[in-house]
Amino acid sequence: MKRVVVHSDGGCRGNPGPGGWAYVLTYGTSRRENSGGIPATTNNRMELQAAIEALGSLKEPCEVEFFTDSNYVRHGICEWMRGWKRNGWRTTAKKPVKNADLWRTLDAAALKHRVTWQWLKGHAGHAGNERCDELANAAMDGVQRDFSPEQLKEALRKFVAETECAPALELF
Fold first, then answer.
1. Is-catalytic flag, 69?
2. Could you tell me which residues are beta bridge partners of residue 35?
3. Which of the residues 75, 123, 146, 164 is marked catalytic?
């Protein structure tokens, strides 16, 4: 089994707001980077999307050392998911799991590999994490360049209406 190292990051300008995700994957001396952006999302969704995209880019089962600066991602995949699945994707408080669509996708992607999830402090000089932050920010820049302020506001309004972000309606 090939051994790869992944760093990922996701971010959002406003929460919710325009977001970006990125990953850096290394295998031996080879390196692959990828990123993307969405006009309206949350920070947690971008962190999850980064992990999904990274694992989904692997063409065969691998041993993966996965670094994230998101406690949400690491705790979710390592500690909370087993209970969510057992409880029909409900929390211990019997509420639907937020971002269940992405958690399910991440679960399916992770099951194809042997993943060791590592947390590292963000913005602390770790090269892989810093590069992901740069890429995610560039993706957010691209979203803000490609969409007018009116389009971004409409995307945000639609996102908030369709998700658990109802309290964010107070932003308008």
1. yes
2. 22
3. 123
Instruction: Report the chain's terminal Cα–Cα distance, integer Å.
Output: 51
Question: What are phi and psi for residue 111, nearest 5 degrees?
Answer: -65, -20
Element (H, E) at 12: strand 2-12
Q: Domain limits of the chain?
A: 2-171
Q: Which two tokens stand for residue 72?
A: 């949400």
Supply 70's token pair. 């998101």
From the candidates 7, 11, 20, 69, give the one annotated as an active-site residue.
69
Read off the pLDDT of residues 62-96 as tens digits, 9 standing for 90 and up. 999 999 999 999 999 999 999 999 999 999 899 99
The catalytic position among 11, 17, 47, 53 is: 47
The tokens 């051994």 sit on which residue? 3
Q: What's the CATH number for 2-171?
A: 3.30.420.10
Per the rule left: phi > 0, alpha: psi between -120 and 50, beta: everything else, 21 is beta
Q: Average model confidence (pLDDT) for the chain?
A: 93
Catalytic residue among 7, 9, 37, 128: 9
What is the rounded CA–CA span in Å between residue 146 and residue 151? 9
What band does 125 get if pLDDT is binned at 50, 70 and 90? confident
Residue 9 falls in the annotated catalytic set: yes
> What are the φ and ψ backbone dihedral angles of 2, each rounded to 5 degrees?
-70, 145
